[in-house]
Each structure stands twice: as C-alpha cells, then as structure tokens.
Amino acid sequence: MRRKLAAGNWKMNGSIPALDMIRKLNLAHPECPVDVVLCPPAPLLGHALQNTAGSPVMIGAQDCHAEEKGAHTGDTAAPLIAEIGATHVIVGHSERRAAYGETDAQVAAKAAAAQAAGLIAIVCIGESLDEREDGRALDVIETQLAGSIPSGSAPETLVVAYEPIWAIGTGKTPTMDEIADVHARMRAKLSDRFGAAGESMRLLYGGSVKPDNADNIFALDNVDGALVGGASLSAEDFSPIITALSES
Ligand code: 13P
Known about the structure:
Blueprint: E1 5-9, H1 21-28, E2 35-39, H2 45-50, E3 57-61, H3 78-83, E4 88-91, H4 94-100, H5 104-116, E5 120-125, H6 129-133, H7 137-148, E6 158-162, H8 176-194, H9 196-200, E7 202-206, H10 214-218, E8 225-228, H11 235-247
Parallel strand pairs: 1-2, 1-8, 2-3, 3-4, 4-5, 5-6, 6-7, 7-8
Helix pairs in contact: 5-7, 7-8
The structure holds 1,3-dihydroxyacetonephosphate.
C-alpha cells in the first residue's frame, strides 16, 4: 500500500500570516489518513515548522544544492533543511529547469543530496506543450525519469511528481486517460529499474489540481496524490483536495 500524499508548493508566494492556514488544516483534518506537506519559500520554513506541533502537516523546501555545504551564495544545503525539521524537498521543478537550465543530471544530484540528508526528494518531471502535441510526451517522461532519479532511491526517500509544463498555472489539465498513461509508464519504468521497490514509490500528478477536478484525478490508477501550486495557498482550496485524496 502506498500512503497518499498531498503536497503544496507555494512557489514564491506566501507570508508569515499566510502560515495560519496550517492551523486551519489541523482543525479540518485532525485524524488525517494521508500525508500532507507544505513547501513554503525558504525564509518561511522555520516559521512554518513552529506552526506544525501536533499537526499532521509536514514541511518541505522547494530546492536544495547538490553539495552538503560550501561557497554557494544564495543556495540552500539539504542537511540544513533536515536540521531545522523539514522532511521533504522539491527538486527539478520545471520552473527551475526553465529559469536556471537545471539538467536531469543536476536534478538527480540534488535528489541524492536530499536523500543523503534524510529528506524525501520530490522529483518533478513533465513535458512541454510542443512535446505533447508532437506525440513525444511519454518518451520525454521516460528520459527525464531515467536521468533525474538517483540510483540509491527507495520508496521512503523518493516521490515522483508528473507535472506537464503546459498544465501548470493554466487551468488546463491533460485528459484523465493521458494522466493514467503517463503514470502507468512511470510505474513500469520504476519497477523495471527498482524491482518491488518501484511498485511502492509514490507518483503524484501536478498541474492545475483544484477542488473540482481532484476526485477524478485521484481515482486514477497509480496516482498517489498531487503536487498543488495555486490551490495550496489557502486552506479553503487545499482542504477539499486533502479530503478528496483521503476519500479516494
Ligand atoms: P498549479 O497547481 O498552480 O498549476 O501549479 C502546479 C505546480 O507547479 C506545483 O508544483
């Protein structure tokens, strides 16, 4: 059984007062049957953690460096993310791949650093609109999956998020069949590579997940949860998504 996961990526949004949503999520989901992770911007991680005592909500970062420490101004070391009590880190988000030219190999190195620090790496992959329209989505996903996931990965240290770039922040999503096809392919490739462990690795869908489409997405085979952007910024939107996942 794979434990389901609702992860929220705040991107470069949020504030200290906005962290009050953790208290609201606590009240709404006192006995939460799924994992819930919020990934606020780095300056908010400490504040966020102060709000999670007795809460089912875990806290994650949005990126880390591949090295443990050193002369990397502005970057964040995975061991430090772990030291303050965060449990997850997103790596390889398409916004970072696009803005900073992060390659699959760099993403794999970051994921390995996160895992070595005791964090769960949420590795993002996803095709562009051109790649989807050219019929290359599955090939692109396979290549990114092979290149972005470190060989030492285990179900306890790895989550993969399929986020089609053209679905992020657009209100568009692939069809349910398209999501199911990608997730089936990811599952098959992880099983080929990691054997039984590949069956237990969690696969998230991300890209315009909202309260009104969550039920359909979570009903799909091999969708073990979601990586949510805009709808994770308020308890009003994120809570129904957690409920949909809990009931799926
Ligand atoms: P939206 O849910 O806002 O489309 O963002 C998805 C995403 O990029 C999460 O990492």
